[in-house]
Task: structure prediction
Amino acid sequence: MFKMLNPRRFYHAVGKQKFWEFIILAVFILFFYGPMLNMCMLAFANTYEVPAVLPQEWGLKWWKFVFEQDNLVSSIVQSFVVAIITTIASMLLCIPAAYSLARFKYPGRKVFMLSFLLTNAFPKLGIYTSIAILFYKYNLMGSLLGVVIIHMINSMMFMVWLPSSAFRSVHRQQEEAARDVGAGPIRTFFKVTLPMAMPGIAVATLYTFLGSMEEAQGTMLVGLARIKTMPVEMFGVIMDYPVQVGAVFAILLIIPAVVMIFAMRKYIGPEAIAGGFKMK
Result:
């Protein structure tokens, strides 16, 4: 039989420093993973009543309920449509801008790069309200295009800064070598520069897609409840349905992020992320 570990013996066995490191790690795990574990538990609880620690009945009752609701399923589809369109449009618009910032030096370049921070420097709701006034004039309120523009504004910092750093890491000598053997500027970009900068672009694309999937305030304000993505629908789920439905919906919202992070794990690291926030 295993004997319960005596805290005093454990303290003397691992030492004072290790002991406090263990305590800090345990507290972090409790506060970080505790809510996630509770959410997963509720998602598979057919019946649960507070203050019980575990559900009274386990099952997939609320998963079936979610997929039987047309409005919930349509919000899942809407989220993916908006996120895919936002990611593609951001790449087409921001990658050329990132290359320009990386390769050409002109007055105001650093100021231009810093301007992408403005959307994150002020309260989002105030910015969305100002944008909504303009969108009313151009009939973009309640439209898919208006929501996509809001999502793109939120992603431009990542889609410009991270690819720009990736392009700077490609040495000019490599591009010049390709041109010396007869490759034109466009072919050099697509055959040499773009593939070598792809890790940084991949990280930016991941952030853009995930950021679009979880954006709620701007979508709710500009979409006028016509464009209902998963985060927007979550507000109604929390108010109108049992807590288990909210847990199921939250897991469905997390799954795409987990899959993409796992698929692109070789590109994600502190060096790629930190490098994108250096301005030269």
Remarks:
- The CA atoms of residues 155 and 178 lie 32 Å apart.
